[in-house]
Specification:
Blueprint: E1 7-11, H1 17-26, E2 32-36, H2 48-64, E3 69-72, H3 75-88, E4 93-94, H4 97-107, E5 112-117, H5 119-124, H6 126-134, E6 139-144, H7 148-153, H8 160-174, E7 180-184, H9 192-199, E8 204-207, H10 208-221, E9 236-240, H11 245-255, E10 261-263
Helix pairs in contact: 1-10, 2-3, 4-6, 4-10, 8-9
Length: 267
Amino acid sequence: MNRDSAIGVFDSGIGGLTVLQKIMEALPKENTVYLGDTARSPYGTKSVETVLRYSFENTDFLMEKGVKLVVVACNTSTAIALESLRENVSVPVIGVIEPGVRAALKQTRNGKIGIIGTEATIQSGAYTRALKKLDSKIEVYSRACPLFVPLVEEGWLDNAVVKMTVESYLGSLKQSGIDTLILGCTHYGILEKQIQKMIGPKIKIISGSELVGKKLKDYLSNHKELEKKLGKGKARVFYSTKLTANFTKLGSKFFGSNIIARKAVIK
């Protein structure tokens, strides 16, 4: 493993492509390897033990590819497995919760922050703990939105079903008085336009996906031994545990050209 080795990114499906996009924008010299565990998505309805196992298996897959650093682009995995991964993996591991929390605290003016995520992420309390650790006076309003992930994985991004689902989940949250909303799942960023339309322009949306690239850039700047110095990132490799048309379609949309996804076999 050296500074020219790739950055590994994994998610429960296609949502993490939003994180990868921001990483590639912030660090155009870096090589990347992406793993979407589409076959076992969604993670948000799985038990803690199952999410831990999946997270380690995904990390092991990326480690076999010789990555120098792992980004856990899945909020559920970050909430449940990040600390265990950091304790047991030989390369640095970065999650998606902390950047969103810091951005939300910087943004809020009335101290009322909403969080939407998978059932597992919300039940873990990871976001609430992180927010309260930095500011104990913050009021937190959480809502699990389990249907958002399957809608995105199916490619249903803008139709009557999506609109009805968004309104059903976020109606009461809109009335809570929050001025900031954290999208606590990478898949949700793909529905951001629909979510913003429903909650209105006065509530600021914070997407962790947009912030991970900056955090990673700062991390590598402080760890020069890992930072790729020369050239342009060329090894953009995509793996999926279940090859779907939507994975390729969405990936191609994000990265401006057709992507070729390889089938990943998780041991």
